[in-house]
Amino acid sequence: MLDIRRIRTEPDAVKAALAKRGESAEKIDQLLQIDVDRRKLTTEVESLKAEQNRLGPEIAKKKRAGEDASELLARSTELKAAIAQREERQRELNEAQETQLAKLPNLPDDAVPAGGEEAAQVIRPESRPLREFDFEPKAHWDLGASLGLFDPERGARLAGSGFIVYTGIGARLERALIQFMLDLHTEKHGYTEIGLPFVLSRESITASGHIVKFGPEMYRDDEADLFFVPTAEPALVNLHRGEILEPGVLPLKYVAYTPCWRREAGAAGKDTRGLQRVHQFDKVEIFRYALPETSGDALEEMTAEACAVLDALELPYRLLLLAAGDIAFAAAKTVDVEVWSPGVNKWLEVSSASNCTDFQARRADIRFRREPGAKPEFPHLLNASGTALPRVVAALLETHQNADGTVTVPAALRPYLGGVERLGEGGAG
RNA sequence: GGAGAGGUCGCAUAGUGGUCUAGUGCGCCCGCCUCGAAAGCGGGUAACGGUGCAAGCCGUUCGUGGGUUCAAAUCCCACCCUCUCCGCCA
């Protein structure tokens, strides 16, 4: 949610920033007109209410004294009608403003290029040399089948196409990666681990703005009106919904593992083979509530923290600065981390790090005080995957595969796999 | 899921239609007193919105949303949450 006061005081800057995302200036002008009308009416309604409030005690006084209060009662009745009439219009204007405002995305950061997907900038090329194979590298779905790690066919039997069953060491690999990432972020990067509900109420999913962003993408329980989390992000936003954080508590740094459910409607057949795009996947999410002046640095740190996972797994990746038209609704700046998948022969997105500035905080009514008694301000909220699992698994299998069909486990992960050094060897499957 | 009790200012409580501008205690802040502190005394102690150069003024908020009334913390309806007991259950 943008600040209406900012739109009011610097409309041209707001228009220019939104133009980068392809939003028209017309919306801003409409909004400003509503705002003018709304405030005028608000002043009117409030002065009528003030008069009515003054009348109350006077009526009571007369009645107690046994005097005739009928004149005051008549005036009060008149005011009641006048207020009711204007309040209806006021409610309409409030709703209109709310609706319009809720439709406007966050203002992109100055550093963010204009344009869509094609305008993304590679801000860091491959982090390490891409592996040269002296044999034809297999795709992860073939490795998964031959090593008995995961089973899309049985997943489809259980829940439909796009659901995966992990088996044996494959299931353990998944669990190992989750634990490895959680440990890395809590022990090395100073995050506090949070165990979250995997479903959210309508209220929560609305406050975070995800009902707009994901809407029909989410699986849901209509009877209970609950939504399966499409990512841990909305849950972590709602953790402090409606709170005023006391001085000294910022920055808050949270890490959480959740499964993520996405219907991926309309994506069928496109880049979906194997683990590239599935309806349920595991993800470790890192999240910060930051002081506004530090959020730029925080985004860089979080991007680096996501990369640290890939470095430890000895996987090459690159960083993309997304263009304004391609970043999430609530984000001001987004950096994607893409890992190289030699079997699929593509860069696969495994993390998306976003600075949402005060946009989510305003919407979810999360504030903080710098000093005791200081005026509440909105913190900046940032999220990053740290990281999403299936594509990491894909890249890991493909990158570290050997000519004999086994896969070498990166050293950092071995302690989590009971010391196993190679998948597919010595009964490890 | 059933029955009952409850949700009021940071915390604890009072408040059953107009005198509530929500009282009191605790906590916290400021001042007085003191060499300093404690105690004591005095004052202060929210958020959001509107308006104003500002001081301020006005409005809204007593779990949430509706309703009754000239007037609602107070009456009515629905919902949410907490606690106790019962049922069910990994």
Q: Quickly count the helices.
A: 13
Describe the largest sheet: 8 strands, mixed
Q: Nearest-angstrom radius of gyration?
A: 27 Å
Structural class: alpha+beta
* Overall pLDDT confidence: 91
Distance between the termini: 50 Å
Order of helices and strands: HHHHEHEHEHEEHHEEHEEEHEEEHEEHEE
In terms of DSSP E residues, the strand content is 15-25%
Shape: elongated
Strand order of the biggest β-sheet = 1-11-12-13-15-10-9-4
Helix percent reads 40-55%
What features would you highlight for this structure?
13 helices; 429 residues; eight-stranded mixed beta sheet; three-stranded antiparallel beta sheet; alpha+beta; RNA-binding
Describe the structure.
With 429 residues, this protein is α+β, with helices and mostly antiparallel strands. Helices cover 41% and strands 19% of the residues. The chain has helices at 4-9, 11-19, 25-64, 70-103, 140-147, 152-159, 169-188, 202-207, 210-213, 233-238, 295-312, 359-364, 389-399, and strands at residues 121-124, 150-151, 165-166, 192-194, 199-201, 220-221, 226-228, 244-245, 252-261, 280-290, 317-321, 333-341, 346-355, 367-368, 380-388, 407-408, 422-423. A hairpin with a 4-residue loop joins strand 12 (333-341) and strand 13. It is elongated. The model has no long low-confidence stretch (mean pLDDT 91). It binds one RNA strand of 90 nucleotides through residues 39, 42-43, 45-47, 49-50, 52-53, 55-61, 63-64, 69, 72-80, 244, 365, 367, 372-373, 376.
